[in-house]
Structure formats: C-alpha cells, structure tokens
C-alpha cells in the first residue's frame, strides 16, 4: 500500500492510499486563511459532475463510445457476488448485470 505525504507551505499534510479508491479514512490539516487569501483550491482527483454523467449517457445511447468492447462479462442480478469477485480479481473489466 503506497502512502503519499505532501506538504504545501508547511500547512497541508495529507496521507492517501494510491489505489483505485480510498480504503480507509484520511485526515489532513490545512491553513484555511492561506487557502482563502492565496486562492488555493483543493481538488478531488476523481469526480463526475451531473452534466458529465448526462453527456456519457447520451454518448452511450447514441452508440458513439463503442462501450461493448469494454464489457467482457455478463451475469444475472442473482450473481451479483460473483460480479464483484470477477472485478476484484481483474478477471473482468466491466460486467453487464442483467436483471
């Protein structure tokens, strides 16, 4: 497990798990005065805005993404545990869950 520790002007210290997602709580401190007056921004490395989701849906529905190449497994809703196991093992990139 990789840990990242970064200092910004001696005020910002953060620890993060360098993986697909955070697996535990991460605490950090920041000088809010400096953040405000120096116009610093704290950005999350991963986030979908509602308009991004809508645009992606529109592209998928229009068939413009070729997303079928990414979906290399298919399971029923009753096999949801197996879906997560496939993804965790890396045996599937994306899995279509059919109700």
Description:
With 99 residues, the protein is of the alpha+beta class. The chain has two domains: 3-37, no CATH class; 50-98, no CATH class. Helices cover 28% and strands 23% of the residues. It contains three helices and four strands, in the order ββααβαβ. Strands 1-2 form a two-stranded antiparallel sheet. Strands 3-4 form a two-stranded parallel ribbon.
Concise synopsis of the structure shown:
The protein is of the alpha+beta class and 99 residues long. Helix content is 28%, strand content 23%. The chain is elongated.
Helix share of residues? 25-40%
Structural class by helix and strand composition = alpha+beta
Q: Spans with pLDDT under 50 lasting ≥5 residues? A: 1-20
Molecular shape: elongated
Number of helices: 3
How far is it from the N-terminal to the C-terminal residue, by CA?
36 Å
Instruction: Give the count of structural domains.
Output: 2
The Cα radius of gyration reads 20 Å
Oligomerization category of the chains in this entry: single chain
Q: Biggest sheet: strands, sense, closure?
A: 2 strands, antiparallel
Q: Tally of extended strands?
A: 4
Give the mean pLDDT.
74
Strand content: 15-25%
Order of strands in the sheet with the most strands?
A: 1-2
Helix-strand pattern, N to C? EEHHEHE
